[in-house]
acireductone dioxygenase (Fe(2+)-requiring) (Arabidopsis thaliana), 173 residues
Amino acid sequence: MGEAAKDQTEEVIQAWYLDNKEEDQKLPHHKDPKEFVSLDKLAELGVLCWRLDADNYETDEELKRIRESRGYSYMDLCEVCPEKLPNYEEKVKMFFEEHLHIDEEIRYCLAGSGYFDVRDLNDIWIRVWAMRLFVGGPVWTAYNRPHDHLPARKAYMKKFLKVIGDRNIDASA
């Protein structure tokens, strides 16, 4: 991303294609040379990004607007650090097991930073460096891939995978 192409959101969010190394998954895993991914490319994959005021999240009008427009009626705060998260090492390993959720997955970093990995339309990993919000109550169920039979997965594939070969996708099932 060139300096002229950056907007305020790109100042706090970066994304790049991952290398294929098997070492510690908590490392950045940039390819050599680094291959960054634009916010536009992330949006094509259904990854939406906003720049919000984390210091005032309780009263942030933009956050309130996003929650209302997307139907996020529940939020919780999760501190991911050895001192605050029980079974920290075990939980972190679970985060890196490839899985999907039937609901949108949202991350809002109030402090610190973290990684969120997604696949592009060619099934290549992208790492996004970035308050969880939910529609209804919190849903913690993760489904290890592929689980292409789930209605939420079918709807995602229908919406974001324009060309999916000879696979028969029925989002209404």
